[in-house]
Amino acid sequence: MARIEKTVFISYRRTNAPWALAIYQNLRQHGYDVFFDYTGIDSGDFEQAIVGNIKARAHFVVLLTPSALERCHEPGDWLRREIETAFEYKRNIVPLRLEGFDYAMPSIASQLTGTLEPLRSYNALSVPVEYFDEAMDRLRNRFLNVTLDGILHPAPATTATAANAAQQAADAAPQVKEKELTAQEWFERGYAATDHDEEIRLFTEAILLKADYPEAFYNRGWARQQKGDLDEAIKDYDEAIRLKPDYAAAFNNRGLARIDKGYFDAAIIDLNEAIRLQPDYALAFINRGIARNNKGDYDDAIIDLNEAIRLKPNNPIAFNNRGNPRHHKGEYDAAVTDYTEAIRLKPDYALAFSNRAISRRNLGELEGAKEDEAEATRLKYLQSSPGP
Questions:
Q1: For residue 32, what is the DSSP state?
Q2: Where does residue 299 rank: exposed (0-12), middle (13-18), buried (19+ CB within 10 A)?
Q3: Cα(first)–Cα(last) distance of the chain, in Å?
Q4: What integer is the mean pLDDT of 18-27?
Q5: Please, are residues 321 and 343 in contact by the beta-carbon 8 Å criterion?
Q6: Could you tell me if 199 and 220 are in contact, meaning their C-beta atoms sit under 8 angstroms apart?
Q7: Rounded to whole angstroms, how far apart are CA atoms 46 and 36?
């Protein structure tokens, strides 16, 4: 008779750490051997520690929220790789549907393609905060109470060591309180919202419940930045960085806000730190290139944008912004080439048409410049007009 295994791997996005910890604590209290990457494993140890622990455990529990799948379109994304590994080794995959998660949401549906598409077919368990204990009872007695036909792979010594270290760190963590999970619900509602004022309101509710919530400060800062409230956005990024000093995205966005305020030197300091923390951060290279271009440091701006293009060869923003310092250096042909590539990658890129028109005028290509100006005007009108 097949044996019921009580070994579990929890897969989650860092924004959902309180949920993951609460589920870990519940399972551990009921005798499960759970791997939960609580402190974070270096990327160099991913294959050995993460993949090895998925292969060594029968059940794979993945937490699904609006924010969880945001980067799953990237082949190297950790959450994506964890799910793919669970598919490959035929683990018992149990999706947990948390606040606001809906497979039909466009932002979610766009991520569940290719190798991740089969996730849609799995029976997901809804876990509301107010019925958390009941949901955990269903998880243990229904979803995890199954035999596994796939072969379990004994964990090598190094993999087991990583699991023991992760368990010790998670076991030492304080018990997750209900208000922390409620804060997570407010955060996910904010993440799924489309109106900036509503985003700010919802992230503020999350912060009121959990004052040490760097992701909520970061996302509220972005909503404020989109509204043009740069001073308040910078304050939010300041707090996100205070709470999480290695928050590369917060340094990047604070740098961008400082560019918009004309504080180019301060912006470059922020973007230097974002790149130090995440050396393959293409967007930070783009933004530092913009700041350097605005300072008149055209050669270094081009170097930054070259690196951004090396990291993300299909990013139209990088090509458009590399065209700008080339234009300022009088390299109009090179600028036109960059703007043209930006337009090829993004045919409705109104700003690239405007920029190419200016460079073409400097080259004496007056008819081409007029055509670009007309197309830029048409696109700006379409993009500013309300939908039907």
A1: -
A2: exposed
A3: 62
A4: 95
A5: no
A6: yes
A7: 13
pLDDT band, residue 45 (cuts 50/70/90): low
Section 245-267 average pLDDT: 98
Contact 236, 209 (CB under 8 A): no
Other residues' Cβ atoms within 10 Å of the Cβ of residue 342: 25
What are the helix and strand counts (H, E) for the chain?
Answer: 18, 5
Q: Three-class SS of residue 92?
A: strand
Look up tokens 């504080």; give the residue. 263
Cα separation of 225 and 222, whole Å? 5
- Report angle CA 225, 229, 230 to the nearest 5 degrees: 70
Tell me whether strands 59-64 and 92-97 are parallel, antiparallel or unpaired.
parallel
As a whole number of Å, the CA-based R_g of the chain is 24
d(CA 182, CA 99): 9
Q: Which residue has the higher pLDDT, 162 or 375?
A: 375
* Neighbour order of strands in the sheet with 7-11: 33-35, 7-11, 59-64, 92-97, 125-126
Across the chain, mean pLDDT equals: 91
Q: How far is CA 209 from CA 179, 203, 226, 258, in A?
A: 6, 10, 24, 29
- List, for residues 154-199, the tens digit of each pLDDT value: 666 666 777 777 788 888 888 999 999 999 999 999 998 999 999 9
State percent of the chain over pLDDT 70.
94
286's tokens? 């783009």
The more confident residue out of 257 and 156 is 257
pTM of the model: 0.86
CA–CA distance, 291 with 368 (Å, rounded to integer): 29
Distance CA 131, CA 125 (A): 12
Nearest to 310 by CA among 284, 337, 340, 280: 280
How does residue 105 score in pLDDT terms, banded at 50, 70 and 90?
A: confident
Tokens of 355: 């920029």
